Task: inverse folding
């Protein structure tokens, strides 16, 4: 659906567009019945006032929504109580919004659910939030298209979405740096647990694979299909994938996991099979979660500046909401990561707490 | 402040209480200026319509707030990116509310901040939420008293707050069971890392200590001051506390940590000092977070039915909001925990994934 203008609303309500404008900016000056007719027309048309009109209104909601794209992810007990990025990111956004006097609203958005998009549209058309942070997992997410069509203030988090404001990590460079480090320090057969097979987060998985491939090429190491292993995002997935790897005749001498939680399972499986880390196999994680400094051995991991990204995304959103950033002035930032080296790749590393 | 009635509002606005009632239930039947006068009086008096009056109103917000009590907790980068209960609980509540068509609003409430309570009061007086889940850390939390005075629908999570609906864990029984198990299986000097020294969560810490003390008494073991060690809630806290313990001449033969994250630090410190777990010292955590099955050795831990508690708290809140539960019919539930035994207390335990 295209962007509705106040002229569309005026036509529907059978009034002049000046009257619609008056309702938007000085509703108290319009007779009640006229106002109600116009408001009904706005609802029918899912009309969203433009930035300029809205900024003239007296009561912004001072609320933003964090909308998490979820695929067919099970909402079962086990899945819910996983320590996932969603919980951490909610916590970080909640605190940052709170510090700035904004209220945070949480929504999940499931493109497979029949009423998925309309539940999010409701937040927009009822003006319950001033803007949105979208945690998208693919660039063609229909929610992004909808928000763009409505010219509603939003920022994409964690993905470089063309044409939108975004805060994302330099995923390719992150894995490139880790694999280059492993190759330079002696690893020759580096396995990449590349992430889930279910198509979610596919741009992220693809970017990381690019970093892996490029680093191997630079080091003159072959790209071996048998060393690129699809794997889910939990410790159990990492555990099982590693046991399978160890059953092969030709073991890798390093494993790069797509996530620290996966790496915890990798370390456990290697320990249970009596494989020494880093002596026989070296291990690298991704995310540098707090626990990574305390695994046995402690885990070398890739750290993204998550809180910095959260602050950037929120600040950008506020600029867009308040109209100090023009729609064409896209804020798009790929944040660099850094490799935190610990015992799982270098024995005797001093603890980096 | 006491509960304001519509008579107080009527007096303030200089109208009859029937007119105030009309504004609450059929605002469209009241002249605009009169309505605005009455609404201003409501705001001035921080008037909150009673449950019965509110249930007659046409538009409930279909929103609930999760309000987390925070002390002087630093909102710095390190603290924010810790995997804490707050993130996990937010994620669980967000999903459950979402499944039921409710919107989740997040707020932090800091009793030390000058505008702390008024920011929460705003949500109530502006009727932006229909109810609240309060994550309180002490029973005399002023937020609880405020909500009780206003007769606003709320449920306390994680603490047995007298006079309020609550979902809490049987904290005393949880630690009692763990320590009894350790004593019965041969531990004689059981150290208890009892939790933070800063007074937060003090009822929880006290309940857990009671369980420790009772189990020792039952087993005929002495309660030794030197084995009750205050300790923060992070892995680093557990790491440092354990190093100090190991420097003493008289080492314990078991350590019960107040939290799994703390236990991760305990395991790491024991490993770094070459102390065998469970051979020389056995370790028990609390919370049974997903990673605990993958530590080296895997961690025996106390599991609370968190998701069940979240569902109970939400269902109770909805009953109160919808008026199907009367205010005097308190829903108060202490949920039992269970001990999940793994390698950190019994060598050779089969993995419990």
Result:
């Amino acid at each position: 659906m295209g962007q509705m203008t106040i002229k569309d609303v005026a036509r529907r309500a059978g009034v002049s567009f000046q009257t619609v404008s008056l309702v938007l900016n000085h509703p108290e000056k319009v007779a009640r019945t006229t106002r109600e007719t116009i408001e009904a027309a706005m609802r029918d048309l899912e009309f969203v006032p433009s930035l300029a009109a809205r900024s003239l209104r007296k009561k912004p909601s001072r609320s933003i929504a964090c909308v998490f794209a979820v695929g067919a992810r099970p909402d079962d007990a086990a899945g819910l109580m996983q320590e996932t990025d969603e919980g951490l990111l909610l916590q970080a956004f909640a605190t940052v919004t709170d510090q700035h006097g904004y209220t945070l609203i949480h929504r999940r958005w499931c493109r497979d659910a029949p009423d998925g998009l309309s539940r999010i549209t409701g937040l927009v058309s009822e003006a319950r939030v001033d803007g949105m942070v979208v945690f998208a997992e693919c660039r063609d997410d229909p929610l992004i298209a909808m928000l763009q069509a409505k010219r509603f203030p939003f920022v994409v988090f964690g993905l470089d979405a063309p044409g939108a404001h975004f805060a994302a990590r330099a995923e390719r460079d992150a894995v490139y740096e880790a694999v280059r480090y492993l190759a330079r320090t002696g690893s020759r057969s580096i396995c990449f647990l590349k992430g889930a097979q279910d198509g979610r987060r596919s741009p992220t998985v693809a970017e990381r694979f690019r970093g892996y491939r490029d680093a191997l090429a630079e080091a003159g190491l072959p790209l071996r299909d048998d060393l690129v292993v699809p794997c889910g995002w939990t410790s159990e997935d990492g555990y099982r994938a590693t046991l399978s790897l160890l059953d092969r005749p030709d073991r890798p001498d390093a494993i790069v996991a797509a996530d620290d939680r996966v790496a915890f399972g990798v370390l456990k499986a290697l320990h249970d099979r009596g494989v020494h880390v880093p002596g026989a196999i070296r291990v690298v994680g991704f995310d540098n979660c707090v626990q990574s400094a305390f695994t046995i051995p402690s885990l070398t991991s890739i750290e993204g500046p998550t809180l910095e990204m959260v602050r950037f995304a929120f600040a950008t959103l506020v600029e867009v909401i308040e109209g100090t950033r023009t729609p064409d002035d896209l804020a798009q930032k790929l944040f660099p990561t850094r490799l935190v080296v610990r015992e799982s790749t270098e024995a005797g590393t001093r603890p980096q707490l």
